[in-house]
């Protein structure tokens, strides 16, 4: 297939070099068309060396070939990665002020735009309108990834990993070729080369249910959505995932590629499952909402109202602290997850902000990362959107070179990708660092 790889002027242009290599390894002819601004980030010799083709940015280069028309006419697919806010705006307006935009205007091939920009630019009404218009014309605009951006800020706007773009390109080319390429082989390269490739990840999801009598129990409002999203994100990043599923409103991903599911109900069952699976894990994501207490006494018969009107008294006892126990067991035995990520659902109170409570919990639990969810009536539990802060322990801050919590708002899938990316980055850096737990 003949592919045009358009590269616009953003810092993420360096990732397009790896995408180019993946496309060339598939045997495609790839013409790279950078914008003049893109050449400020990656030079022309790099593009020419890997593509094996001449590269230019101007419509006045090779005028005898009329390249600004011929390139588009001969292409089967045009991929623009990264597609900056400026490039999307010019494509929407039909401008043709350089070789790339002229090619976009002249081609009738499939177009795939892969955005990369700061969160504020991605969410700006002008960009939102430009993306909607391009999609309305039948062009594909991928969703950006969520994670660390150029500066200290994070959020949606990060260029998806080259393996993920490559997987989508292969799907499109299979459609154009009229073949019915199955999803697994197409997505396999992304998983094999992903951030968590070869890693074993344990994810806990949902709530726990503590029986009081044969018909009643103590529980919570956890839907399991965030845990399932984490399992999917870890699997997409190449990990072998063991999902320990408590009580959930959503279906567990039974039979999903790269994911095995274990069912539990009580906090004690969850504790035992984590202890068993965690010893072999590289990463533990403790997203389950574990009941802090359980009835001290289980009543074999249903508790009934009495005629004297006296209210029953229910005595509670503490459930095991699974997160602290896992950290402690790792320290004592020298085995267990290299990175442990805790979750804190906090409402705050008159004296304490939820972020302060989460910082204290992170210090108390001893895990590497802690994800704060602000919860309450109508917040987070059962909702599709969420707002999280990813906090790092002091040692991890030094390893990652940052101290401020990572703030992410958006869908639970976006939050999951951010958590998995941060945890995977930490695993990768620990492998190259003398930092010890």
From TrEMBL:
CTP binds at residues 292, 302, 320-323, 343, 361, 365. Catalyzes two steps in the biosynthesis of coenzyme A. In the first step cysteine is conjugated to 4'-phosphopantothenate to form 4-phosphopantothenoylcysteine, in the latter compound is decarboxylated to form 4'-phosphopantotheine. This is Coenzyme A biosynthesis bifunctional protein CoaBC. Pathway: Cofactor biosynthesis; coenzyme A biosynthesis; CoA from (R)-pantothenate: step 2/5; Cofactor biosynthesis; coenzyme A biosynthesis; CoA from (R)-pantothenate: step 3/5. Residues 196-421 form the DNA/pantothenate metabolism flavoprotein C-terminal domain. GO terms for biological process: coenzyme A biosynthetic process; pantothenate catabolic process. Gene3D superfamilies: CoaB-like, Flavin prenyltransferase-like. Binds 1 FMN per subunit. InterPro entries: CoaB-like_sf (IPR035929), CoaBC (IPR005252), DNA/pantothenate-metab_flavo_C (IPR007085), Flavin_trans-like (IPR036551), Flavoprotein (IPR003382). Pfam families: DFP (PF04127), Flavoprotein (PF02441). It catalyses: (R)-4'-phosphopantothenate + L-cysteine + CTP = N-[(R)-4-phosphopantothenoyl]-L-cysteine + CMP + diphosphate + H(+); N-[(R)-4-phosphopantothenoyl]-L-cysteine + H(+) = (R)-4'-phosphopantetheine + CO2. Its EC number is 4.1.1.36, 6.3.2.5. GO terms for cellular component: phosphopantothenoylcysteine decarboxylase complex. Residues 1-200 are annotated as: Phosphopantothenoylcysteine decarboxylase. The keyword Ligase applies. It comes from Nesterenkonia xinjiangensis. Keywords: Decarboxylase, Flavoprotein, FMN, Ligase, Lyase, Magnesium, Metal-binding, Multifunctional enzyme. Residues 1-171 form the Flavoprotein domain. Residues 201-437 are annotated as: Phosphopantothenate--cysteine ligase.
